[in-house]
């Protein structure tokens, strides 16, 4: 997503990066929003709640309609959003063609022109190398691009409790933060453009490793005669402790209020995890970084997608790995 | 290790498991200790400190001498320990032949006779299936066997801060606890015999997975331009958090007082981790449990042993995975 | 399986290993056979066909009955076989307790006594370390033990086309060969006791790796638009060639007369492969040998057992890895 | 590499794909060659040997000089080659920016114009998706693009014994074949554009899996007491057989004339294999194909690059996995 900054006093010779003072005057002016999916819609709603006029677009008319009823202005395509707003947030699926709003080839989605001095904030999860390309493209148009992927799911998006990991020119962080704090509880500056994506990808890779590891471990312990609640307790007071063991345990009955207690409905889908791990894998390949466990985690989530787990929560890897007694054989 | 209970009033028809009351009277009577290595020696010292007379043995005379000077009685072999003490603690390397004190074939180490009603506590880390065999063998001799492997290294052994994970007959746990609390800060009852080993093995498998995962992740993040301290901070406030990221970070400079800050000296050696993972693998194979990441973690630590990392701390996997700039090639 | 040599002139002071001349005189005397399962039954039949009187036993009466009708003498248990025959072949499932005929604890299966000078040939697939233990046990009884596991399935067993990989004292190989050539087309001497098992395990580990690798590769190629027959042809004329690509291709329609053309019925079952890989893994763990791909292959076949593939041919890994279009998700 | 067809009778309204008859008339007219590295130089020489005038370019002047002395015309950049030749072969390193001759952004390497009706043959190993993009770009310029990656190393390139795997419009295959047969012994038509790359990538992924698998297996067998030559012989007559075991065995002393007999000098470098596996991984990720062993093979070759094996032959994985006795530890 992109976030165009409106600056009323823009002149031909305005320096590319406006001073913070002019930015704070820009508050409560129109914010563009591209991508009103499961995540984007509640995010845009939170901008409305905080008093920002929103101009938005999405390929699905129903998503647009709901936001329109809440007061947003709906336009036909991303280019129109960029025409009118000079702060634009994008939240798009990780489809490569869609995500290349500034550098892609599609005439329907490509934004060829943005206002000079605009701030573009992309909250999609994409390859950090693509973020860098977009930043270069934005700079050529006299705009600023920042990557700001999120952690936290639909619930956090609705309640405005997302965490944003932000990469981009440090001088622009305050401007981005002003908008992002309307939608999230934590806004973390990570460094140069692309580092927001890097932080997101790194976290999710380690999360996947921890989740599969916890599932294998719990399964092994149960088979060795340990009570799962007790095993979780022991791990959580020991060096095996991780988020997947103490906060999101994949074994039904060990914890309340997590997808494992609800037949792995809701939560963070296996196919979304597989996508993020694909990004991690590609990024690691391109930087020649060995990621043996991350790579195997990717393959396991990919196999799960092939075996009917695509839309279950990613903690269902416990179920996937567990022997089916009937099928077990000798 | 075994722990023989002395009960002065033992008669021919004494029930196998004595009531707790008789056990508490048994306190401060002689405790046997077999295995005075890096871990066993400080453990035995802590028993002496708590006022227990100790009768001990080890294959290395020097280890024995040090304990003798502190007041322990030294005997020639395990059988003599078992002859005199009716509570015996064992702490042996995971060499299969050594660990089978009750079921093995070696005439030098095999204990063929224990006092009726003895309590044998084994703190070695071994295959839970072997623990079960030993429990059966002990029962045939009228004794009780419990497995009580530890977490925590030499430092925790010296300061009496070990965690014991105890498996065995629940009625005997109080008796075991009385001794183990002299040597450890936590004594956790895990269930039937073998479950102490199971808990230990499970924890260490998840620990290895978390450590390698953290190392891959930190390495990838650094290559993507993230500051390692900042990345660790982000992971630790997010779902990637684990013990290896927040308590024992493998990247030099991220944390103080961990082996990564000291060229991976000290800590928990790679070859010890490889051994524990070998146990996890064998146990998983025997119970037909899929452990894909645990299995790959085992292979990685095995490869590290082959490449000169055997005696470095297991967090040196970060160093192992990191590209050597000189060797990197095109 | 064990193969006891009858030697009519045995005296108290007979040297342990008889000269070859006495062995050739022993031909056409009774051969013991323990284990009449899918493999053992046709093997024993081939001994009968070659004119050897057979004395056999099995836990399933039906298996025994069929062989009895062909002229074999049936007895109640392994001990009786060992009492009467001095050449005994065993072909048992890889259940550890069953396989330890000479060193196990079970009163029903343990053979405590064999004739002096007997030849025991075990064709079961077991841990080479167990073979070595059995050889030691046999030697103590004045007998000779050889391991002679087979490659080739039920079809090869019926047609006498098995390959035997034989480990044991070289001087005894001729005696073993005499019997094994009745049941197999190739009898290969591998070295000291245990090396027959080693060769079998090594072959099957590489076979599993090749089969999964071929399946991944064919699947990837098909998804990239290649015709599967053409891809197989290209691989088979290039460096990707392996037995699984050129002789037992896992993709339906590429080859005739292989399980992939028959819905993966028949052939070598996934659960049998998982067992052999478990042996390979355990052996590698005990010898501290890194086997990263072998280990992952083991995990994949273990996961397949958990997902309903236990009794399908092991080439069904192609089907397991293939994306199910309906389940694929976004 | 691109191969521009010269057709003397080209008119404004010439159909895009010339009939084969006109192509055969085109023989012995100038052929462009872009990329004169280890592989490209001997390939271009073979074109010269077959009587084709060659117009070539490379970033390294020395490479150019050698070819110039043999009669080739040297020009400054790819665009000049494309200006003059209407059959162009490219053989570039897999650096993404270099390989995107038709679609890239670099002003130094980008070819913006080719002659109408040109034939462009790319023998570099790249992502099949990039080949498809280049085919689209070529078509827009009125030219034809084919991918024709090679198997076989520098030796095969020198002796004209390469294998070409060709993807592209079937009608153009004869024209491509005419040139490629000057440089290779086998020219295989694989299907639509991109399938040449697909076949190459698939073969190399399976090759890597087979090589690591063979190395693990040989290592395990040796540790279990098998003679390596005997083990290789057994595998090669059994179902474990593969190209790496029977033609390019990685164990020193097993075969003559392979890199394992020459301290892993020469052959196919580990870093080149790591690159091809990176392509396979990326392609698998993009097509959502699970490749667990391929993915782990990639990671292992990546780790080897990090540990000093980058320029050794890829069969040195045997050495990498082999335990170093000194370092082995307890």
UniProtKB/TrEMBL annotation, chains A, B, C, D:
The active site is at 200. Its main location: mitochondrion. It is found in: Mitochondrion. GO terms for molecular function: 3-hydroxyisobutyrate dehydrogenase activity; NAD binding; NADP binding. The keyword Transit peptide applies. One of its GO terms (biological process) is L-valine catabolic process. It catalyses: 3-hydroxy-2-methylpropanoate + NAD(+) = 2-methyl-3-oxopropanoate + NADH + H(+). Keywords: Branched-chain amino acid catabolism, Mitochondrion, NAD, Oxidoreductase, Transit peptide. Its EC number is 1.1.1.31. The keyword Mitochondrion applies. InterPro entries: 3-OH-isobutyrate_DH-rel_CS, 6-PGluconate_DH-like_C_sf, 6PGD_dom2, 6PGDH_NADP-bd, HIBADH, HIBADH-like_NADP-bd, HIBADH-related, NAD(P)-bd_dom_sf. Pathway: Amino-acid degradation; L-valine degradation. It holds the Pfam family NAD_binding_2. Residues 30-191 form the 6-phosphogluconate dehydrogenase NADP-binding domain. Residues 194-320 form the 3-hydroxyisobutyrate dehydrogenase-like NAD-binding domain. GO terms for cellular component: mitochondrion. Belongs to the HIBADH-related family. 3-hydroxyisobutyrate dehydrogenase subfamily. NCBIfam families: HIBADH. This is 3-hydroxyisobutyrate dehydrogenase. It comes from Oncorhynchus mykiss.
């Amino acid at each position: 997503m992109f976030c165009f900054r409106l600056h009323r006093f823009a002149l031909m010779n305005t320096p590319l990066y406006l001073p913070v003072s002019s930015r704070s005057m820009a508050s409560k002016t129109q914010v563009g929003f591209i991508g009103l999916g499961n995540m984007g819609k509640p995010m845009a709603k939170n901008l409305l709640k905080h008093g920002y006029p929103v101009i938005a677009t999405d390929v699905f008319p129903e998503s647009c309609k709901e936001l329109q009823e809440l007061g947003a202005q709906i336009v036909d395509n991303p280019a129109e959003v960029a025409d009118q707003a000079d702060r634009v947030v994008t939240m798009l699926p990780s489809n490569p063609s869609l995500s290349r709003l500034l550098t892609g080839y599609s005439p329907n989605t490509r934004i060829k022109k943005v206002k000079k001095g605009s701030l573009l904030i992309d909250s999609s999860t994409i390859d950090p190398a693509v973020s860098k390309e977009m930043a270069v493209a934005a700079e050529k148009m006299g705009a600023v691009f920042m990557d700001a992927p999120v952690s936290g799911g639909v619930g956090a998006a609705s309640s405005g409790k997302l965490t944003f990991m932000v990469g981009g020119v440090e001088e622009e962080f305050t401007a981005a933060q002003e908008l992002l704090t309307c939608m999230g509880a934590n806004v973390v500056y990570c460094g140069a453009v692309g580092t927001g994506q890097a932080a997101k990808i790194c976290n999710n890779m380690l999360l996947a490793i921890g989740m599969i590891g916890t599932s294998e471990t719990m399964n092994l312990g149960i088979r060795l005669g340990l009570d799962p609640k007790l095993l979780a307790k022991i791990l959580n007071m020991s060096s095996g402790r991780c988020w997947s063991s103490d906060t999101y345990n994949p074994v039904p009955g060990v914890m309340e209020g997590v997808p494992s207690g609800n037949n792995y409905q809701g939560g963070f889908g296996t196919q979304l995890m597989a996508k993020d791990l694909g990004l991690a894998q590609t990024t690691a390949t391109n930087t020649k970084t060995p990621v043996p466990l991350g790579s195997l985690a990717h393959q396991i989530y990919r196999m799960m997608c092939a075996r009917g787990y695509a839309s279950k929560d990613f903690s269902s890897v416990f179920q996937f790995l567990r022997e089916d007694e009937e099928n077990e054989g000798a």
